[in-house]
Amino acid sequence: MSARIATGQALKRSLTEQAARIAEDSGITPTVALLRVVHDDPMLPVNFRLHRKLFGEAGFQVRPYELAADTDWETLRSLIERLNADDDVDVILVLIPLPAQLDIRSVLATIAPAKEAEGLHLDHVMRLNPLSALPATRIPVVPTAVVHLLDEIGYDPDGHEVVVLTDPELTETNPVAKMVARIAAFAALPPNASGCVVPVTHPRARELARSADLLVVSLQRPAAVTAEWIKPGAVVIDFNPVFVGFRPSRRHPGRQVPHLVGGVEVESVSEVAGVVVPAPGGVGPVMLGALAQQIVTAAVTRRAGTARATAPPRN
């Protein structure tokens, strides 16, 4: 068997173009405040550039903020609160990772829910709980991107077994990754799909992964998942690209760029799986397209609410 390799660039362009059309049809130009605090992670400036490029492609207005590595919480909180109060700003996006003195949980809690487009604010996450009487307003972009990819490859997980293979090294240090794996991932799936989250360190991890019709891999370990982990014909989605060093740029001779490797060893897995979505190049681009759509939704919803709040009373 030779698996189909499904990448996300074309789907990202389609989602971004749809977002731009919706914004144009709604008569708005979303404004995004994009914040990053300097960190030694070499992917952070790359992601900052990718987000700015995305917003340009979608026709959004961008307010970029680059803060020093020693920025304290009071300084960041004050900036977020000013942006919350600025009616010209539709969405506030803070890139991670953050320096050790800053906690992403406090950051997300400070952003006004109406201006948090990634679906990570507690107000949005709580609505994913079946006990919530409130309808879901915003599903995080990670599972949303996965659903878009499944639609693109023509795979319906209804009635199938879904396994999310995680890395404690990632989930126990990153509360966003932990929430997405344990709460949001299954909120986006059909009710008849059964599933579980399996730490890669579990003694039966390989056996459980091999039972999956749909295996989603989010690891900090390059090429750890090989053919022995895969059910024949399964759909395998590699989510988390890992930085392993630098390599020469193919487009710009003489320039060094980050070298990323996913948790799935694509060559061997492709001999068993039916479809492989690799990392990088698979979920990541689609996440950007999904983010563009959720930014437009947030901007349209927020401005409609503002218009209702400021409308003169009827006689």
TrEMBL record:
GO biological process, one term: purine nucleotide biosynthetic process
Sorted UniProt keywords: Amino-acid biosynthesis, Histidine biosynthesis, Hydrolase, Methionine biosynthesis, Multifunctional enzyme, NADP, One-carbon metabolism, Oxidoreductase, Purine biosynthesis
Domain Tetrahydrofolate dehydrogenase/cyclohydrolase NAD(P)-binding: 140-300
Pathway: One-carbon metabolism; tetrahydrofolate interconversion
Gene3D superfamilies linked: Leucine Dehydrogenase, chain A, domain 1, NAD(P)-binding Rossmann-like Domain
Tetrahydrofolate dehydrogenase/cyclohydrolase catalytic domain boundaries: 9-117
Cellular component annotations (GO), alphabetically ordered: cytosol
Entry GO MF terms: methenyltetrahydrofolate cyclohydrolase activity; methylenetetrahydrofolate dehydrogenase (NADP+) activity
Protein name (record): Methenyltetrahydrofolate cyclohydrolase
Organism the protein comes from: Streptomyces corynorhini
